[in-house]
Write a structure and sequence with these properties.
Helix content of chain A: 40-55%
Number of helices of chain A: 9
CATH class of the largest domain in chain B: Alpha Beta
Radius of gyration of chain A: 21 Å
Shape of chain B: globular
Strand content of chain A: under 5%
Mean pLDDT of chain B: 97
Helix content of chain B: 10-25%
Shape of chain A: elongated
Structural class of chain B: alpha/beta
CATH topology of the largest domain in chain B: FAD/NAD(P)-binding domain
Largest sheet of chain B: 8 strands, mixed
Oligomer: heterodimer
Low-confidence stretches of chain B: none
Number of domains of chain B: 2
CATH architecture of the largest domain in chain B: 3-Layer(bba) Sandwich
Distance between the termini of chain B: 28 Å
Structural class of chain A: mainly alpha
């Protein structure tokens, strides 16, 4: 028979494959935990969500960033009300775990940059000053970011959008504020021809995928 | 020593779109078939309408094999490697990617089988692009038609026929080859928006029609009708209306008592009897234990990248450069469909596209293949224009702003997205892509999978023909959208040829063993009891999704094998 590598080596590596395969359910469990947290937390405007993976200081900076990316304004609630940072914090212990070091370094660099260029920590700056810092970070001109500030900005923006518009199961889009913002009428399992007509007024049902018992979480 | 199992008549490596179909005619013929599948069974309960899980996290509930073996890419042999993509476009499960594909189930058009001879006849041989290794298929569409028909009826395909026995019907695709009968089910319904686009297409004098889908438009073989709920794009079906092989051919083959499905089987090599240069079976690993499954015949049906990789990894004395590679053709004639370079349109009203599915749409084939005169253009082939109903919230919020605001965050951006999230539509433009001498697959010299085996490396870039064709098709699509009332248009880039769901070639089918890995029946030119299934045997792409063609070819190979089993199983090399 054909042997590409030694059998002993193969078995050794197969053990490694088993270990890798075992990681996936752990991720899923992390998401479930996040979902349970959301349900409990969605009852009212808690003073502060329990933090799982970020430090309190990191969480404060990230909250301030998210609030400028998708602001609360005349058009209604934004990333703060959606609890986008709650989503990111939970995900950093699971599906986004590989981004944890980037957040640590990036948030620290952003706060240092705010102090050195604007004289105060990022969270203490005015909205206009915060926007000025974020423009520098987005354009890649802010200094002190190990992987480049523009890359860090894109990462945070991507995750803030996920946290604002994801299924509430994952700890963001609290009270469906993200879906209401863009007019997504919610998860349905049956859609009629009339609901796909141009001009149809499809009422928002404020349903998560996991409000339907048929699905395995 | 590996655990040596009882010999099977046929082992199929991979129970996805192709392997899952091939199992049925083999089992029905009374052969003992073992299907080795890296993934597990998933059911409708696993298919939550969950955008984050399905579209961003690579199906965490499935066995993570392909995500650990993502091919690397570089545009050409002297360029640095491209950034590695994070998620493989395919997945592991019984039924494979047919669990979550878009399920567009096209037949190729007649021209796709005769690109070289028809181009030469109509425009002259000089019009075959320089450096292309394209060949005519070893047969025309007439040879494959009975198998397209079998698969359409066996799994269940919805659609509108455009050519039954030569009678053209404008409700379907007037450019398709003659079929013996219509589809087993009428087409999926249109949405308000796709109906409006169809009307706009007709005002241009074009021929819009609803595309074919392996999704039930009505109850079929005791499976539900489609619910149009909106998470079909990389999502499994919660009512089994998608005609995945996991709910059609595989359970039917199991019911014969002749198919044994082995899940979590991570295949590491195809093995050879060095005395006669024939394949002796398949080695695989499950949960740390090593098995050898002997077989009289092996059908390799993983996916284009894994088919090529397993052949190249399976080195032996008779095949020192990899199984069936003594002519150096494994990995050659690779091409991936140019599905990029889309068009995104902005309308001044909501399109109501939050629900529906990518297969619920309207097609224009007037600019595909050789359906129009190419005398005045500088390319051969063409593109299929496809407009469909599909939107999910995270992707919608990440929409382009068409230059209407330069901001990608903040209040101004938020106001734009709030107003326009349901006012865009992005077309899907599949375009003829050709094989070239310097586009190929091989093993990466550095990147390895968790077992320590090299991953597949893609060396490929689009050429002049693809670039000119893309620009032409984008302009046609822009014209269609503008006719329907679009107020802004963005042209997407053609991009690079990284890992894709439409990967062709690498084990091409053809009569000439100097330029093809498998013969006209899908059996190896070099190891006569080895067959290869999937789009890796296809030599041309056409301008449409490959799955139905891969399935028709798989059925044909399996039927040929069943009819000639003793000869193929015992043939001397």
């Amino acid at each position: 028979m054909t042997v590409f590598i030694s059998r002993r080596e193969l078995l050794k590596r197969a053990g490694l494959a088993g270990a890798v395969a075992a990681v996936a359910p752990a991720f899923a469990a992390g998401d479930e935990a996040a979902g349970a947290q959301t349900t409990a937390a969605a009852v009212g405007p808690a003073a502060r969500d329990p933090i799982a993976n970020l430090t309190a200081a990191e969480s404060d900076i990230l909250e301030a960033i998210a609030a400028r990316l998708i602001p609360t304004d005349a058009n209604g609630p934004g990333a703060s009300e959606a609890r986008a940072v709650h989503y990111i914090d939970r995900a950093l212990g699971g599906a986004l775990a590989s981004s944890r070091p980037t957040y640590q370094a990036g948030l620290n660099a952003l706060d240092q940059y705010a102090r050195s260029t604007r004289g105060r920590p990022f969270a203490a700056l005015s909205a206009a000053e915060q926007d000025g810092v974020l423009i520098d970070v987005e354009s890649g001109t802010a200094t002190g970011f190990p992987g480049g500030s523009a890359e860090f900005f894109n990462l945070v923006r991507t995750h803030t959008i996920q946290g604002t518009f994801c299924d509430p199961f994952y700890g963001g889009n609290a009270n469906f504020v993200g879906w209401d913002m863009i007019g997504y009428p919610g998860v349905r399992t049956i859609v009629t021809p009339d609901e796909q007509r141009l001009g149809a007024d499809v009422p928002s049902n404020h349903k998560s995928a996991y409000d339907y018992d048929m699905f395995t979480k | 020593m590996p655990i040596r199992l009882k010999e099977a008549d046929v082992v199929i490596v991979g129970l996805g779109a192709a392997g899952g179909v091939a199992a049925l005619p083999l089992a029905q013929a009374g052969l003992d078939v073992v299907g080795l599948e890296a993934g597990t069974w998933l059911t409708k309960r696993d298919f939550a309408p969950d955008e984050l899980r399905n579209n961003f996290r690579g199906w965490p509930q499935s066995v993570q094999k392909t995500n650990h073996e993502i091919p690397t890419h570089r545009p050409d042999a002297s360029s640095p490697m491209s950034p590695r993509v994070a998620i493989h476009p395919m997945m592991n499960a019984v039924g494979g990617t047919t669990l979550h594909y878009w399920a567009q189930s096209w037949r190729l058009n007649p021209w796709d089988f005769k690109v070289v001879s028809e181009t030469t006849r109509r425009y002259g041989a000089a019009r075959i692009p320089k450096g292309s290794t394209v060949e005519d298929w070893p047969f025309g569409i007439e040879e494959l038609e009975p198998y397209y028909d079998k698969v359409e009826y066996e799994i269940g395909v919805s659609g509108a026929a455009g050519n039954v026995g030569g009678n053209i019907d404008r409700r379907g695709n007037i450019f398709e080859g003659a079929r013996r009968r219509g589809y087993p089910m009428p087409p999926l319904r249109g949405s308000g928006f796709t109906d409006l686009m169809a009307a706009a297409g007709r005002t241009l004098g074009w021929h819009p029609f609803p595309g074919p889908a392996a999704i039930n438009s009505q109850r079929y073989q005791n499976r539900s009708v489609c619910m149009y709920h909106g998470y079909c794009n990389r999502g499994g079906c919660h009512v089994d209306a998608k005609s995945s092989t996991a709910v059609t051919t595989i359970p039917k083959a199991q019911a014969t008592g002749r198919l044994k499905v082995v899940t979590r089987a991570h295949v590491t090599s195809l093995d050879v009897n060095e005395g006669n240069a024939r394949v002796s079976g398949v080695s695989y690993v499950t949960d740390g234990a090593e098995y050898f499954q002997p077989a009289k015949v092996v059908l390799l049906a993983s996916y284009t990248y894994e088919n090529v990789r397993l052949l190249l990894l399976s080195k032996s004395r008779p095949f020192p450069r990899g199984l069936s590679n003594n002519h150096g053709q494994v990995g050659r004639h690779y091409f991936s469909h140019a599905q990029t370079a889309g068009i995104t349109a902005l309308f001044p009203w909501n399109t109501n596209s939050w629900y529906g599915l990518p297969a619920q749409g309207v097609a224009i084939d007037d600019w595909a293949d050789d359906n129009f005169d190419h005398a005045s253009v500088e390319f051969i082939g063409g593109g299929n224009l496809w407009v469909y109903s599909d939107r999910r919230p995270i992707v919608a919020a990440g929409m382009t702003t068409f230059g209407k605001t330069t901001k990608s965050w903040g209040s101004e951006w938020k106001a734009f997205v709030s107003q326009n999230a349901d006012r865009t539509n992005t077309s899907y433009l599949q375009k003829t892509t050709l094989p070239y001498e310097d586009n190929y697959l091989d093993l990466d010299p550095e990147v390895r999978d968790p077992l320590g085996f090299p991953v597949c490396r893609i060396t490929a870039d689009y050429k002049d023909n693809e670039r000119k064709l893309a620009a032409f098709i984008q302009n046609k699509m822009e014209q269609w959208y503008r006719t329907a009332g679009a107020v802004a248009i963005e042209h997407g880039p053609l991009g690079s040829m990284g890992p894709t769901t439409h990967a062709y070639g690498g084990t091409r089918m053809g009569d000439n063993p100097e330029t093809n890995v498998v013969d006209r029946w899908g059996l190896s030119h070099e190891a006569s009891n080895l067959g290869v299934l999937g789009a890796s045997v296809m030599g041309t792409s056409g301008a449409r999704n490959p799955t139905l063609t891969a399935q028709a070819l798989a059925w044909r190979t399996a039927e040929h094998l069943a009819r000639n089993f003793d000869a193929i199983a015992n043939r001397r090399a």
